[in-house]
Fold these 3 entries.
Entry 1:
Amino acid sequence: MTRVRLFIILAAVALGPRPAFPTAPPAGQVAWLKYDEALATARRRGLPLLIFFRQDNCRPCEVLSEQGFDRPDIAGYVNQRLAPARVDLDREPELKKKFRVAGAPTVWFLAPDGKEIDFFTGYVPADRLLLILRYVGDGAYRTMTFEEFERREAKTATDQEGK
């Protein structure tokens, strides 16, 4: 009888509910979610949603990942200020169609309520990627254009260099 109870307890633990990420990603890596999970996280936490559309054997996708999203400061920012989803275009054609993705890589941003903010296609250098992420993650998209945000950030950097 004791063995049966032990088996039932172990089975219940093994088959019980699992968090989206059982363990945190290693430092310097984005905690990518599936699209539906990221959308739910965005709504629950009031965060913008980042959707990274990629494909296997896509060199620009690999470079954007390696030189951009895998950079520790960028990964940390994404994990803290955005709900990140990674979508494989070959495996999720319905999302490709929904977001009108013409090529990879494509990165879409949605407001916490699911409304489209903006997107970009192709490789973006890491420093510019971080600027784009901050524009969305800091909520500046609500009050100014990206060009205005970019000018403001350049002026702030210049002012700080002069001090």
Entry 2:
Amino acid sequence: MYDSQTVALAAKRQAEAFPLARSSTATESPEVFTPYEPRTLEETGLTQVNVEGLILKYLQSTGNATGRAISEQIRLPFAIVREILHALKKEMLVAHKNEAGMSDYEHQLTPSGYDRVKHHTDRCTYFGSAPVPIEEYFPSVAKQSIRNSKPRIDTLCKAFSDLVVPLSIISHTS
């Protein structure tokens, strides 16, 4: 819809009007927020009982699963999940069904595990991603906000290219 000369002229005007606006490389490939990956259970801010509940409820839902599949489901590093699975096996709440390779096993609930998971599901049936402590949640949301982002005119022109919108209106939104 807009020829490259028009876009270039609008981008030049924007740069003159807003000299502190981000460069095109900063806007086209913004810094991606990556959460910190905990190395220990303590660094997660969760208790072993919290993670145990997520693991047991997932196993109840799936019947059996490898440690890596459980790790993926609850979004915690395999090393942390493996330690808790080892403790659950010692307590005879889970058993190894098969070897899965790479220091992993296919796990299943034992009768005692089914009894324990009932306690967890009576409190809460959720078994997705492990929760993040609230003190970490709010700063992570703030880091991902687009509130301070300043889109460039050429990026906006591409976004609105399939609409009939005057360039003057697009330049006001940037």
Entry 3:
Amino acid sequence: MKQAWLLALVLIPPAILSANDTDNIKLVTTGQIRNIDTKHKTFQFVFRLDERPQFNRGGNRPPYSGGRRAGGRGRIGGYPGRGPQQGGGATVNAKEVKVFITDATVFKDSGGAFQFQDLKTNERITITAIRKGRGDDLIAQTISLN
């Protein structure tokens, strides 16, 4: 029995054993072009991250915002710093990455022909991309004008 397992492990290609599930995950997002490098066919791309979900102990009910609760018990005026009326400045969760263009990158536009040279700084686009290596860089598979 041990020999069968050992034989199975030897026959499995090393690439399968070392493959990481996050290597080929596609990212589809809309953002803005910050900088274009036509020589290296890359551009800096900024997009907004989704806000982190906020959970409270009461299931789906909103946080306590003051006043009296049912039954005549509760604190009048609420707690300082809690509730929807206490809104500080919203933080912008933006991420800036470098996007690489390859020969396999597809450019989509409703108006017809579209190429890398047609991209402009501050233009809003939607990209479908995968990670390049271990950093934040991306390889574009599809670019669509908005």
